[in-house]
Design brief:
The complex is a heterodimer of chains A (about 100) and B (about 270). By secondary structure, chain A is an all-alpha fold. Chain A contains three helices and no strands. Chain A is elongated, with a radius of gyration of 17 Å. A two-stranded antiparallel ribbon of chain B has the order 1-2. In chain B, a hairpin with a 5-residue loop joins strand 1 and strand 2. The longest helix of chain B has 26 residues, at about 65-90. The two termini of chain B are about 65 Å apart. The relative contact order of chain B is 0.04. The chains are: A mainly alpha (about 100), B mainly alpha (about 270).
């Protein structure tokens, strides 16, 4: 199979995630789109690791997963804090960092 | 189908080709579904399917360790966290369809198409030759051993920094989710004194007390026939204040309570 197909799929998923970040208003869905973009880049890393014949790409993808997990934990905690004060999960509502 | 496979198959590995196309379709459909569904829960389920498809792709890309990690970390931990927060924030919170910036949605879709075209054109003009991971995966005795050799060898500093990051993230989440108590917790004595001082120390009336319907939202009727809001739970007060109170019947009760005589109840009238 053409090895570029994996990279094509990764590019399509990344673009869909980017459009989602720009279009969606629910902050949790925006977060999911960011996760999709991270996953797409992970796919590119793993595909490139196989093309170059070493495991460094897989290690980088592993680190990306770790950072994504940490990011989700902090991000969702921030979402909870904002929801507690503003009673809304829309990105339009959070236009002030305080209050 | 075989002609389509031979069209894209240059190495003759048919199994991988089938796995790729199945998983690619599932992944793209999942991503599109996440993008287009209005309910956040549906988006979460769609992206979970995308992540599982990606895990299968990792396994077929000779990265079984990453495939398992993808399933455990993403579908196991991250998506459960997402669903958990969704349940707290409100499952029904549908996306608002109002455009706050005029023309932003069209501009965003155009940007996405242009970005995808740019990426795909760039990839299309590149040449790929696959070396394969067979030697790299067997040199240390397996994929997991090879990755472990790299993580605890060349990337050991990044690995240690990662542990610091995880601790910081856990602490940050605890600090952010912690709610400071501004007032000291009331003791049992303070609560009982507060109750006596409120002027209504006894139990509130149950919903069925003299009411015409045995529903929680129906206000109870006092012995003189007037409805009281006290039996209705706090969130329902005002919403269903007059619902279920038949004023014809309450008038009958008031007449009876004041010693007057009333005729037999007309059953068809109370149903309205």
């Amino acid at each position: 199979m053409n090895p570029a197909n994996y990279i094509y799929l990764s590019a399509i998923l990344f673009s869909l995630g980017a459009v989602g970040v720009l279009v969606r208003r629910n902050v949790i869905v925006v977060f999911m789109c960011v996760e999709l973009m991270l996953n797409a880049s992970n796919l590119a890393f793993v595909a490139f690791a196989r093309q170059h014949g070493n495991l460094d790409g897989q290690v980088i993808a592993f680190f990306v997963m770790v950072v994504a997990a940490a990011e989700v934990v902090v991000g969702l905690a921030i979402v909870m804090t904002i929801f507690r004060t503003r009673r809304s999960a829309s990105v339009d509502e959070a236009n002030l960092l305080k209050y | 189908m075989t002609s389509l496979l031979s069209l894209v198959d240059t190495t003759g590995n048919t199994g991988e080709t089938i796995v790729f196309w199945v998983c690619a379709i599932v992944a793209v459909v999942g991503a599109l579904g996440m993008l287009l569904s209005h309910r956040a829960v549906h988006s979460a389920l769609f992206i979970a399917s995308t992540m599982i498809a990606l895990a299968v792709l990792y396994v077929s890309l000779a990265a079984p360790f990453l495939g398992m990690t993808q399933i455990v970390v993403y579908t196991g931990a991250v998506m459960m966290l997402f669903l958990f927060v969704l349940m707290i924030v409100g499952v029904d919170s549908a996306d608002s369809l109002v455009e706050t910036i005029k023309g932003q949605r069209v501009a965003a879709i155009l940007f996405g198409l242009a970005f995808a075209a740019l990426l795909l054109a760039g990839i299309g003009s590149a040449t790929f030759d696959v070396q394969g991971l067979d030697t790299a995966n067997t040199i240390d005795g397996g994929n997991v051993q090879g990755i472990a050799h790299l993580i605890f060898g060349r990337y050991v500093l990044a690995f240690e920094v990662t542990s610091a990051l995880l601790i910081t993230a856990a602490l940050g989440a605890m600090v952010l989710a912690h709610r400071e108590r501004h007032t000291p917790r009331p003791t049992q004595r303070e609560r009982s004194e507060e109750r006596v001082r409120s002027g209504y120390p006894q139990n509130l009336p149950g919903p069925g007390v003299y009411a015409l319907h045995n529903a929680v939202g129906t206000p109870a009727l006092l012995p003189d026939g007037t409805p009281t809001d006290l039996s209705v739970p706090e969130p329902l007060r005002g919403v269903s204040a007059a619902v279920g109170v038949d004023h014809k019947d309450t008038a009958r009760v008031v007449t009876l309570a004041s010693g007057g005589a009333v005729g037999p109840a007309d059953d068809e009238g109370t149903e309205s």
